[in-house]
Write a structure and sequence with these properties.
globular, two-stranded parallel sheet, about 15% strand
Length: about 270
């Protein structure tokens, strides 16, 4: 029943990823790494990346129709919750809110998962370092849920599934934005065929990123290639909630020291 009803929403999938906008990948700044070394092994960040990659490899083994059904069942379809009668009619399980978690581990293509996991690799270890492993995992899941709820609130009538980890990763970025503003982001800007490498303060880099999401969400059509407001919701929730997840003994400012690039900076 449900597979037949999917044709009711015959539109392109709504991914939590900016790279699906035509030409966006070639114009944006690409973060290569930050300059803050981690004191502790980021086991949870590694685990999250491993789970996402494993699930994506499973997706590659599916037939197109099976993958389509997977995204609808385990991705976030806002109308599923705002229009329960429609949801029941097309065969969605009732009172099932698990997609607000499962959607974080689904991705719609190679560029989608690579860009998300690379961003998590760069920024996640330092946030995990400050929070501790279990607190960081809980923080990641909560900000991801808030990102999904934000998207559902803004687009309550959407019948298009939203998948991707970038809502939760935006929460990590929100925490990093306030925890490590003095960090330097080693960045590459593709200019025609010549890459340009330079450093940008983390505060400026992430502020520019947030502004682009706000502008995109304000001016984008209802159905586009990016869930802008999910990114905004994740980022703001991460910025607001992160102090709750940091143990008291790790809230003090870290003394100035040379990082691995020889640039002085501090942890706040």
């Amino acid at each position: 029943m449900f597979l037949n009803a999917i044709s009711l929403a015959d539109k392109s999938l709504f991914f939590l990823d900016a790279s699906h906008i035509k030409g966006a990948e070639s114009r944006k700044m690409l973060p290569l790494r930050d300059t803050i070394p981690s004191r502790r092994t980021p086991f949870v960040t590694w685990l999250l990346i491993a789970i996402n990659v494993f699930v994506f490899l499973f997706e590659l083994s599916l037939e197109p129709k099976e993958l389509h059904a997977l995204f609808y069942l385990f991705g976030i379809v806002p109308a599923r919750y705002s229009h329960p009668q429609w949801a029941h009619l097309v065969g969605f399980p009732l009172n099932d809110y698990s997609p607000f978690i499962t959607s974080m581990f689904l991705h719609g293509g190679w560029s989608h998962i690579v860009s998300n996991m690379w961003t998590l690799w760069i920024f996640g270890d330092n946030v995990e370092d400050r929070m501790g492993h279990l607190r960081y995992l809980l923080f990641y899941l909560i900000t991801g849920i808030i990102a999904g709820l934000t998207h559902s609130f803004v687009y309550p009538n959407s019948t298009i599934p939203t998948v991707g980890a970038s809502g939760a990763i935006a929460g990590v970025l929100g925490a990093y934005f306030l925890l490590f503003p003095n960090s330097q982001i080693i960045t590459m800007l593709p200019l025609f065929f010549f890459p340009i490498f330079f450093t940008v303060p983390a505060f400026a880099y992430l502020l520019i990123w947030l502004v682009t999401q706000l502008m995109g969400g304000t001016f984008a059509e209802e159905v586009s290639g990016i869930a802008f407001w999910a990114h905004v919701g994740g980022f703001l929730s991460g910025a607001i909630l992160h102090p709750i997840f940091i143990p008291k003994h790790r809230r003090k400012e870290r003394p100035f020291e040379e990082d691995e690039y020889g640039i002085e900076g501090s942890w706040m």
